[in-house]
Write a structure and sequence with these properties.
The protein has about 375 residues and is an alpha+beta fold. Helix content is about 25%, strand content about 35%. Strands 11, 12, 13, 14, 15, 16, 17, 18, 19 and 20 form a 10-stranded antiparallel sheet that branches. A 6-stranded mixed sheet has the order 6-7-8-3-9-10, with helices on both faces. Strands 2-1-4-5 form a 4-stranded antiparallel sheet, with helices on one face. The longest helix is centred in the middle third of the chain and has 18 residues. It starts with a helix and ends with a strand. It binds adenosine-5'-triphosphate. Adenosine-5'-triphosphate (ATP) binds next to strand 2 and helix 2.
């Protein structure tokens, strides 16, 4: 007994091992392995055609794998049909039954499970309340807004209390403001129910704002998996750095000068080199919010990279400046908090400036 307990490990909600999916000559998913833990809000993020929906459809059991292993709550489900997987799905188009009321839509799946009538009624009420639609039970889907219909679809999927909820771009049809509101709502609902959510989106901001972890996909592969902060602050390469947030890539050379390692654009300027740099040609990535500007005549240990402000865009809560340099355009953003309004440079389109960043706010990337 003791030895069995000692050997038992917490069971993952979902595990893909070396999963490949081919459609004829197209490899939609190429030897993908990933593990999703119970209670996660896991986002599959990537551009169109990268394999997000394929991954979701494989987990849901809607399409067969070409090879590999899929486990849900520790159980191998390769050959199990969708309804035996303890998984439910919310689709972008809601897929509500138009002739049924809201309550009947939610109750439908519970009836199929042959739950007692009293349980069906109480669960229907409970999940309508969860999604903020108490009192809407007698409406038809056509009498509700897109956002409300999406909530009904969510309540219907959650009412069956699946171990895993799959969401395929569920907010894609909503306008931007409603979409933002539903993101907050989805996070709240996820926290309240504790179910594992697997959410597909091509919108990096949506993934960053809601996910506990994100898998960034490209061409049927997972390029990186990590928390929003990990993939933003430590992108595994150029693709992830570009896809998640905006990034400056600056080519130059790391050399020793006066006993210190610097990142130099030969003859054009230099900044302190990122920690761990080695001598030779290098590309630095630095996020726009870390890029700083100073007047050309301000004394500094490193001269920075000289350039000229060629565009100033006021964007409400921040300003975005584009500086043309010999190392290419470098973008800098600055928030409009009073404590950082220490320079008037943002008003000076055409001004010559020095661009710089603290060494540890940049990273070298492999090309
Ligand atoms: P989107 O964001 O556009 O929905 P996605 O990341 O979800 O894209 P998938 O739908 O998973 O991408 O498609 C992955 C690849 O597999 C694409 O190249 C796509 O053309 C291909 N594919 C998907 N379904 C089929 C199919 N039924 N038959 C043939 N090829 C398919």
């Amino acid at each position: 007994m003791d030895s069995i307990l000692a050997e038992s490990t917490p069971t993952s909600a979902i595990e893909l091992r070396h999963v490949t999916k081919r459609y004829g000559d197209t490899v939609a998913l190429d030897d993908v392995s990933m593990t999703i833990e119970p209670g996660e809000f896991f986002c599959l993020l990537g551009p169109s055609g990268c394999g997000k929906t394929t991954t979701l459809n494989l987990i849901g059991g809607f399409i067969p794998m070409s090879s590999g292993e899929l486990r849900i709550e520790g159980r191998m489900v390769n050959d199990l049909p969708p309804h035996k997987r303890n998984v439910n799905t919310v689709f972008q188009n809601y897929a509500l039954f138009p002739h049924m009321t809201v309550a009947q839509n939610i109750a439908f799946g519970l009836r199929m499970e042959k739950l007692p009538a009293a349980e069906i009624t109480s669960r229907t009420g409970e999940y309508l309340e969860l999604v903020g639609l108490a009192g809407f039970d007698k409406r038809l889907p056509s009498e509700m807004s897109g956002g409300q219909q999406q909530r009904v679809a969510l309540a219907r999927a959650l009412a069956k209390r699946p171990a895993v909820l799959l969401l395929d771009e569920p907010l894609g049809a909503l306008d931007l403001k409603l979409r933002k509101h539903m993101q907050t709502e989805l996070s709240r609902i996820h926290r309240q129910v504790g179910t594992t959510f697997v959410f597909v989106t091509h919108d990096q901001e949506e993934a960053l704002s809601m996910a506990t972890r994100i898998a960034i996909m490209s061409g049927g592969n997972v390029m990186q998996t990590g928390t929003p902060r990990e993939v933003y602050d430590h992108p595994a390469g150029r693709f992830v750095a570009n896809f998640v947030g905006e990034t400056n890539f600056i080519a130059g050379t790391v050399t020793m000068e006066d006993g210190r390692r610097v990142f130099a654009i030969p003859g054009r300027g230099r900044v302190a080199a990122p920690t761990g740099s080695t001598d030779g040609p290098a590309t630095v990535m630095v996020r726009p919010e870390y890029v700083r500007l100073r007047p050309v005549d301000e004394p500094a240990a490193d001269p920075g990279i000289s350039g000229r402000i060629v565009n100033v865009a006021f964007l409400g809560d921040h300003t975005r400046l584009t500086v043309s340099t010999d190392a290419g355009d470098i973008v800098s953003v600055r928030p409009h908090a009073t404590n950082v309004r220490s320079t008037h440079l943002e008003e000076d389109l055409g001004q010559e400036v020095c661009v710089w960043w603290p060494a540890d706010d940049a990273a070298l990337i492999a090309d």
